[in-house]
Amino acid sequence: MLRPSERAPGLLVGDGVDLPEDAVLGGNVVIHDGSVLGARLRLGDNCVIGKPTTLSARSTAPGGDPGAASLGDGVAVGAGAVVLAGARIADACVLADQAHVRERVEIGPDTVVGRGASIENDVRIGTRVKLQTAAYITAWSVVEDDVFVAPGVLLTNDPTAGRGGAGRELRGATLRRACRVGGGAVLLPGIEVGEEAFVGAGAVVTKDVPPRALVMGVPARVVREIGEEELLG
Amino acid sequence: MLRPSERAPGLLVGDGVDLPEDAVLGGNVVIHDGSVLGARLRLGDNCVIGKPTTLSARSTAPGGDPGAASLGDGVAVGAGAVVLAGARIADACVLADQAHVRERVEIGPDTVVGRGASIENDVRIGTRVKLQTAAYITAWSVVEDDVFVAPGVLLTNDPTAGRGGAGRELRGATLRRACRVGGGAVLLPGIEVGEEAFVGAGAVVTKDVPPRALVMGVPARVVREIGEEELLG
Amino acid sequence: MLRPSERAPGLLVGDGVDLPEDAVLGGNVVIHDGSVLGARLRLGDNCVIGKPTTLSARSTAPGGDPGAASLGDGVAVGAGAVVLAGARIADACVLADQAHVRERVEIGPDTVVGRGASIENDVRIGTRVKLQTAAYITAWSVVEDDVFVAPGVLLTNDPTAGRGGAGRELRGATLRRACRVGGGAVLLPGIEVGEEAFVGAGAVVTKDVPPRALVMGVPARVVREIGEEELLG
Fold it and tell me: Which of A172, C86, C148, C190 could form a disulfide with A141 if both were Cys (CB 3.0 to 4.6 A apart)?
């Protein structure tokens, strides 16, 4: 149950939360029951940590208790950001203002989730990933280390567009190590983007992208191989 | 006028609000004057119900008092969601976290408005509709029963792009019963998507879509008819 | 340091803030240290003014103290909107609900920033500009007077998609006087859209748009010249 705390103005803290002394808190922060908090956190104004899930009757997300939210050492959460129960955010991540992270999302260390970006349920994200403003990571996706997802990128996972019933198979995207997806690109369900590949801005990707390929257009086609000098290695 | 209430931590309630005993409230909820609230509500942290309209001097939205916001029985409103005065949300709807619903929007029962989705003024939405994350429903649109709008879909209504003056005619979209619009699709002003039609992900729709047609591409073209087995019926 | 204020329910005000008597305040407003506030402000529920910057270690935004946020006379800030320290908003602007404005953004008078729109750091915006719902203005862009940016427009600035290192050159968009950008259009890095030009909805703009040209498609091509009767003049 949420109760006012004297630690910061407008702060509400749930049961079983151990709030470290060194946390830097904005105004009106809400921390729900059982949230696990690392050292040196910065929690912005009006952010919400560990919000219990509220699924619609027709949601495709698994029910059940997703466990507590956990934030590693040095995590920064922006103003108005919402982190659901069962999300696990590793050390030194930044969740920017108004970002949204759902239940059972796992995020590796040093990853940045941009302003207003959205990560749906049951997504696994690696280390040093950068998801920029308003990027949308659909449920059941895998995003490997060092991936860059530009602003407004949209991943999809439902080939039936809602027609397959509650038990339908959803196929998230797989973004392999060090690939890059340009601004506003749209990926159809189940797409894999290969290691070090680059999807151009505004592309609509309808089939898998080979490793190290540059693809562009609607539908996206391979334009060339990424040069040695551009590889992250 | 908003005043603190003892019913929940950080709760602010306006004049003339009858808050049912069985409402489940997060932290820092704001309920403005006159809001009409059904039974078994769940109102998430930092959500705002019945916010008075604040139009810019150049807004195309009608002025005047839109009346109170009303939420039917069993409605769930997510964290950080904003529902304006004059929105009417029927029973058992879910407005997800950070969603936004404007004045004079009417939403039928059992409809889901996804995380960060936005419904502009004077929109009418049916029953069992699903608007997914960050979908954008432009003003003066009509969305019939059982429509599915995927993440990041963008409807537009102004062929002049702001050039027609304050009295200009805006033409929202019409999404007929059981149609589906895929992720990131863009609809030009005044488009009608027919019953059971399917707009592919990433399409740009420049003319009306016949009933039961599958359209794809930029500009969108009819690819085939939707098979019997895919119809909602 | 934020402290509760008796001026409005849930209001938190930082040090060195002179809150004018005529400000109209929603619930749970947060105003950070040193914010400079004009007359006749309207600040919506849960909005945040002057939030200090929190950059990730790999951010391309300049560090250092951006100075205080300032809001001119008659500015309206919507519910859940976030204005960072060092943003300067001129008289009579409207920042709609859930909008986001970063450090060192300068916005001229009478401009509207739509619901959920995002303006990144170091952007300069003119007078009577209209940025609609969920529009995304990338860092280092210039938007001149009387520009219209439709919902969901996406500007980009990084040709390397994150690969150029922290010191890399970012090239924002330049939107010249009275140009219009249609819904969901995507602009590649460094694009200039000429005076009175019009980018069609859903276009992907890969090269500069001449003044007064209408461009459409993917990639965008010139379709015709804008007629005299459509010019703002």
Answer: A172
